[in-house]
Amino acid sequence: MRLSLRFFLSHALVAVVTLGVCLLLLGGAARFVLAGEAARLQRQKTEALAQAAREAAVSQDELAVLSVMREALRDPGVVFAAWEPPARPRIVQPPALAAVVPLSPPQAKLPAPQALPGLGQVVIWTLAYPLPRSGHGLVRLGFDQGRAQAAIHERLMAWLPPALTACLAALILGALASFWVGRQMAEPLRRIAEGTRAVRGGRLDQPVLLDRQDEIGDLARDFNAMTVQLKELDAMKRDFVSGVTHDLGTPLQAIRSASNALISGRAGALNNGQSEYLLMISNHLEGLTAFIQNLLSMARIEAGKVEPYYETFDAAKMLSDWIKLYRAQAEEKGVELGFECKLRDASVNADLLQFRQMFVNLLSNAFKFTQEGGIMVELMGNSQWLILKVADTGIGIDPRYHQLVFDRFFRVRQPKGAPARQGTGLGLAIAKGLAEAHGGRLSVQSSLGHGATFILELPRRH
Ligand code: ATP
Ligand code: MG
After folding, report:
1. Which ligand is the nearest neighbour of the Cα of 426?
2. Cβ(19)–Cβ(167) under 8 Å?
């Protein structure tokens, strides 16, 4: 999953959970406030009744109390009203409820709802009022708890839609902001990843340009510093290799000439043992010379000093001549070696020696990595491009190494028990460098265990 998406999703999840919890808390708090307000109103009503009863006791006007009771009953939330003057029968409105209204003493705190027969849950407020001389009377008001709860619920429901809309708007804004922040964070990381790929592909001259003062900026600066160091090391290594190679070339040439002179007998006759040892020395010298030649070619390619000497020749004729030289090797190995030219005119304008080196490097690989089956060389193309394919039925190359095999010194690690194959890992790097010096390219198509096809494309004219 992309970093920006992961960032966005995790933020969205946190925002949804936080908003949900906030909504629940706010809903609970609003319900608490509304319930408190309803209780205050109920108490106020009961206090008004108690006040009327006190004034009635002073003025002996009992009708005023009855009218306050009737007034209170107009509220649909009030179930009953009761007046209990001392030493007198109590008055309950509506009178039919006289039997169910309890005779409990007044309570100090908020009364708890109680179930009354036929009335459901009722909250009964009971207040005492003082008499002019001594003693006290009681008034009660019963409130329908179900109706009070329904009123609170109704008010909460009226509050919910705007609250939800506000939450949704906050959520969308938060999500957009988190998406933007996620992208802002992922973008520099993407650029650093690009830089890493460039370094892996051998391009050490592409610094990651990031002007940030945070940890990501530090990472980019460290990465650039590392690339500069790598570049310096690479240049040092190249200078060293080409210096050593050059210095080795001359004495090696002298040793070869001397050993050839000895083998030819020009310096006197040799006995069998001496000839055998000399042959061994000569074989190793050939290998060493080829290696030094490869190193020199690579150094020239990397220094950009390969200048093809262009001449026009018939590629089909050249290839069929060269292939003839490999027939014996193919027979000895037991592999088929075929050549097909699909062009009527196979002339090409290229450096003949370098063309030969590219072909030989590809063909020698095909021989090296093919135990059975065959090797097919094909020449094709069009008026612009000459295409040379070298296909084999050998061990093949895992696609994850398709880029890397063209890096100098890279060799695919062979599985344990596989036959040892000599090589330095320079053949393909040289072939690719020479192809590019010609303005062409070299690529591979292969999968593990199913052979490999190397495709060399060269422009036909320059
Ligand atoms: P050198 O060519 O310097 O003697 P090499 O053949 O090992 O050594 P390259 O020609 O550069 O080096 O090839 C690099 C690697 O690519 C090889 O070691 C091998 O792992 C892989 N490779 C090249 N050609 C083939 C092929 N035809 N089939 C399978 N693997 C190949
Ligand atoms: Mg090779």
Report:
1. 1
2. yes
**pLDDT above 90 for 454:** yes
Separation CA 124–CA 80 (nearest Å): 9
- 412 CA distance to ligand 1 middle (Å): 8
The lowest-confidence range among 57-71, 141-155, 381-395 is 57-71
Over residues 416-425, the pLDDT tens digits come to 888 888 888 9
358/431 Cα distance (integer angstroms):
5
Distance 173 CA to ligand 2 centre (A): 60
451 CB near ligand 1 (under 6 Å): no
Q: What is the DSSP string of 240-303?
A: HHHHHHHHHHHHHHHHHHHHHHHHHTTT----HHHHHHHHHHHHHHHHHHHHHHHHHHHHHHHT
CA 110 – ligand 2 centroid, Å: 96
pLDDT digits (tens, 9 = 90+) for 253-262: 899 899 988 8
Q: Which tokens sit at 165? A: 């809309």
**With bands split at pLDDT 50, 70 and 90, how would you rate the model's confidence at 206?**
confident
Q: Which of 117-126, 356-365, 380-389, 435-444 has the lowest mean pLDDT?
A: 117-126
Smallest-distance ligand from the CA of 366: 1
403 lines ligand 1 (CB under 6 A): no
Ligand 1 pocket test: which of 241, 392, 393, 405 has the largest number of ligand atoms within 8 Å of its C-beta? 405
- Dist. CA 290 → ligand 2 center (Å): 12
Distance 353 CA to ligand 1 centre (A): 21
Q: Ligand 1, closest atom to CA 390?
A: 27
Query: DSSP assignment of 427-458, as one string?
Result: HHHHHHHHHHHTT-EEEEEE-TTS-EEEEEEE
d(CA 457, CA 432) in angstroms, rounded, equals 10
Tell whether ligand 1 has an atom less than 6 A from the beta carbon of residue 423.
yes
- Residue pLDDT, tens place only, 132-148: 777 888 999 999 999 99
Q: What is the mean pLDDT of residues 381-385?
A: 94
CB distance 397 to 405 below 8 Å: yes
* Cβ-based neighbours of 378, under 8 Å, separated by 6 or more: 339, 340, 341, 342, 388, 389, 391
